[in-house]
Amino acid sequence: MRKYVNHHSARVIGDRNWVIPFITSFIIFITLYFSAISGLFTSPHDGENLSFDIIPFAKSDDTGGYYVESDLKTSLDTNGSSKIGAPRFAYLISGTRGDSHRMMRTLSAVYHPRNQYILHLDLEAPPRERLELASLVRADLTFREVENVRVMSQSNLVTYKGPTMIACTLQAISILLKESSEWDWFINLSASDYPLMTQDDLLHAFSNLSRNINFIEHMQITGWKLNQRAKPIIIDPGLYLSKKSDLALTTQRRSLPTSFKLFTGSAWVMLTRSFLEYCIWGWDNLPRTILMYYTNFVSSPEGYFHTVICNNEEYRHTAISHDLHYIAWDRPPKQHPISLSMKDFDKMVKSNAPFARKFAKDDPVLDKIDKELLGRTSRFAPGGWCIGSPEGGADPCSVRGNDSVFKPGPVSERFQELLRTLLSEDFQRKQCT
């Protein structure tokens, strides 16, 4: 998702008044930071709570005190080894006004009992639509039994050119870290995203992969982008107003940072739990320093995680520059990607990517993906966990079996070809360069 500043539509603040917005932006950072971690201390539900395993924090018997830094650093394993057992994913699916049914369709297409899911409708969606989304989740028998789908009760105003999307993402990650200790990778999707393979295909492909690999398309910011992205001082009204409006730009310019390098890339990521623990807990000050910097940065979602991971010696070698999406752009690229349709189907398949975006609501190509790639004829894309009988049009996923048994199809083989390319030595030489 590439964003560009429209200098004509932005409000310009005069030279004499730049101090007040700048001080305001610092206060906004404090609000942004505590908003991001608030998920660690508040329940994500207004009503009935779902029960999940909580991460234990036990004191060491060998020392007189407990130092969180040493405990968190032990979770890092940069030698490339992988955990035992099948992996688990944690999804954030986000949407805005009118997206509730699209979000449910995407959720059903990527659902698997092993995974965790958070749905977020932003503040532009009316309360009635948010209640409808929560009711749809609560009414689903599988979701009630497995208890792995949540609807965020706190709605955030999201302006995609500002830092509010990062604030919302960090809050969702915080909730996931608090509520469940059993996931390995975090994946963010929007209501206009859709999978190109089943979760069995994806989980099977990641079963033999190191749990330390992060998929995040990135490149160092150079040239004209430094002037247009890094030097302007912006304020996102979405952090303190209840309605969206354009970013506020001061006429002042700031110097480039000297203590870290700036990176940019796709806003759609697949990040490891250990890296996100580092972003949230931050046993050094780098994640907070960069978060403060990106509070006043144009298109923060396309730079925050990228800059953090590429400026940390322990994680920079884990960054694979790919967002695992098929996305089509105009030439030259415009602010938004092309909406995919039937004519793009073959290109999507040949990309071997597990996800694609963006799709128009109920576009016929989604039905083609369901039929030919996902084998989805009922609520969920079928997998090894679905052991019910399909006779008479019954839903085979209405009866659940062992969720660690996968039945990958030919799509999984194509995806593993992509993984072999991404993990090749030639490709990995491009990490954080």
TrEMBL record:
User: What UniProt keywords are attached to this protein's entry?
Assistant: Glycoprotein, Glycosyltransferase, Membrane, Transferase, Transmembrane, Transmembrane helix
Parts forming coiled coils = none
Tell me yes or no: is Glycoprotein among this UniProt entry's keywords.
yes
Stated membrane topology is:
Single-pass type II membrane protein
Per the record, the domain of life is Eukaryota
Any one GO CC term of this protein is: membrane
InterPro entries membership: GLCAT14A/B/C, Glyco_trans_14
| Cleavable signal peptide | none
Q: What is its main location?
A: membrane
**Name of this chain's protein:** BGGP Beta-1-3-galactosyl-O-glycosyl-glycoprotein
